Amino acid sequence: MNMGNRINSIPHLERHGMGLLVLTLYTGCLILVGAAYAAGPAPQPKGSTKEQISYYLAAYETADPQDPLVMRTHGIFKRVLGAADKRAALYPHLRIFKSSGPTMAMALPDGFIVLTTKAMNVCFNGVDREKGDARMAFVLGHELGHMADGDFWHLKTAMSLAGEPGLEEIRQLITDSSDISKADKKNWAIHRQAKEVRADDCGFMYAGISGFRVDTLIHGDDDATDFFTHWTRQAPHQLVDLSHPSPENRTRFLKNRLKKLSDGIDFYKYGVRLAHFGHYEDALYFFREFQNIFPSREVFNNLGYCRLQQAIEQMPPSVAYHYWLPSALDLATRADKIRLKGVRGNEEPLSPEARALIEDAMRYFKIATEKDQTHWSAFLNLAVTHFYLKNFFDSRAAIEKAHALAPKNPLIATTRALILNLQDPMVDMWQEATHQLEIIVNQTPTDLCALYNLAVLHEDRGRDGKAAQLWEALTSHLSQLPAPIQTAVALKAGISQKGLAPPSQPAAIPWQLPLALGTDLLEDATAKKKLASWTHLNFNWGKGNLQGRIWTGPDGTQILEKDEFVDMVVLTCDNGKALAELDRHFGPPRSSRHGTGGLLLDYASGITALVTNGKPTEIWLEQTRD
User: Fold this and answer.
1) How many angstroms separate the CA atoms of 626 and 605, rounded?
2) Is residue 428 a contact partner of residue 460, using CB atoms and an 8 Å limit?
3) Do the bridges between strand 112-116 and strand 93-97 make them parallel or antiparallel, or are there none, so unpaired?
4) Burial of residue 372 (number of CB atoms within 10 Å: 0-12, 13-18, 19+)
5) What is the pTM of this model?
6) How far apart are CA 56 and CA 453, in angstroms?
7) CA dist 256 → 27, 326, 358, 598 (Å)
8) Sequence-distant contacts of 86-95: CB under 8 A, at least 24 apart
């Protein structure tokens, strides 16, 4: 958020008792803030400029890393960073400096975001934790948006303001520092505003995708307490608003815009939930709608993921599930359709339908990696698509990029071993591949994906004794395996399919739902009365193929209505007891997977808990299908 830059005090302003320069070009974001300290101007470090973090490290005292607010801010940054687009050679880092003066948050070209403790206080003071976290997530997301676009125009402007310019000189300095062609100089304000709009969009979306209650930024506040107006008013003198109306009017404009983006976040989140429960066709509609609003790397990765899952459903089971490819099977739930054949390879051909879906998935994954070349999960998914197409050279190239980004990730290491085993038919790499899998299993005995694939490699090689030992080890964890893998292990270990425990049904949940799953909202008068005080977001896509509403209650509880029936309920958690209650009713989670918003724990058919920072934040319950 182009909210400030520490510059030496400007005598022209100090003589007027101001000591603070504020340049506000767009909305409730302080673009530049420079302040004079009582101790005098900061020294100019040799060999560094204000475009480098070294300048700020030399000039200002770093905030205490053990300070609770500093730790809280770094935790927020880590979450928002997970959702943000990033440039190939610029991985963002956050540095926080002590300051009672400037309210400053600024992206630097060398990959650092500079934040002052005053900015933390503006976000956190006077509001509850949920709202304060959302404010800080927006601020940091805004800066990450500038960094992802390589947009540092505001910093260049700050560099020019070291003299004693008057207002007209300031206007000219900003124009001269613009990256717009000379022919378009008269439209500099429009271009500058467009960049700020883009950064605001990024801040709002990154914060929302990573699980912060961004709705608290745009609902329920009057102008006196609104965050955006409050932020703008941190300047004691609204000196240099060259081309825009009052902070209040800018705030109302921004809130109207962000309300539309807030709707998009709901579409994105329900796309994730539907994909998690295996409803890929419906999820695609939600993701495409979000793509129209905000085409981020996350949505392209998820579009590709859904296409990949659809391709797997079109494959012969011996091809789809011969190996456990982690990105391909995290969400698979079709145990009733699996009839694995007793083959030692996966030589059945792909159908034209499956191949077309995989190629479509690959297109989305490539877009995701182009938008953010640090997004390891997109490279992992790309490697898996090449693997299914037997393009092992390309698969190895993609997995190596993922491995370089996340060298300790066991899912990447497992997939890498499988690719290594098959990449060159003229060279026997079986021993090296099994050795790499054994390292993973020895380091993390609970890594069932690596254990399963190690069993497969031994069976493929004819090492049936060792394979049987590994299959037997996996039978102790049947309830934790994805459904197709559970079925495969049962067959390999000689366990009857009838002996597998049926999945628990959501009727046994330990909480009362606002409306029962499957409720007919067209006919049920009680349900209509219940929802009268709730807000709703309509959708109707594919000429009626998917229509309904997203209902939101006063406490944040949500209901997904599809075709006038309650299809899903999302409960919010305000304490840490939810997981203990789920454990007591269903036993330990049967599977887990990491997502952008946190850790997903599957407890039963149609019941999933979202855990963020070690605490449950949501419980997802869906209408199960027979």
Assistant:
1) 11
2) no
3) parallel
4) buried
5) 0.72
6) 50
7) 12, 41, 39, 29
8) 86/144, 86/147, 86/148, 86/372, 86/373, 86/374, 86/375, 87/147, 87/148, 87/150, 87/373, 88/373, 88/374, 90/147, 91/374, 92/144, 92/147, 94/140, 95/53, 95/56, 95/57, 95/62
Q: Considering only CA atoms, which of 451, 219, 428, 427 is closest in space to residue 323?
A: 451
Higher pLDDT among residues 330 and 236, named by residue: 236
pLDDT averaged over the chain? 76
Q: Give the whole-angstrom CA distance, residue 147 versus residue 54.
A: 18
Helices assigned H by DSSP within 106-187:
117-124, 129-148, 153-160, 167-177
Residue 551 has pLDDT above 90, yes or no: yes
Please tell me whether residue 62 adopts helix, strand or coil conformation.
strand
Burial of 499 (0-12, 13-18, 19+ CB in 10 A): exposed
Q: Which DSSP string do the residues of 364-427 spell out, in sequence order?
A: HHHHHHHH-TT-HHHHHHHHHHHHHTT-HHHHHHHHHHHHHH-TT-HHHHHHHHHHHHHS-TTS
CA angle 314, 316, 318 (to 5 degrees): 140
* Highest averaged pLDDT of the listed ranges 97-101, 119-123, 226-230: 119-123
- In this structure, the dihedral spanned by the alpha carbons of residues 528, 533, 535 and 538, taken in order and rounded to 10 degrees, is 20
pLDDT per residue as tens digits for the range 191-224: 666 777 778 888 888 888 787 888 777 765 554 4
Q: How many other CB atoms sit within 10 Å of the CB of residue 585?
A: 14
Q: Which residue has the tokens 């990491």?
A: 594
Distances (CA, A) of 30 to 106, 167, 527, 623: 10, 17, 46, 47
| Rg of the chain in Å (alpha carbons) | 27
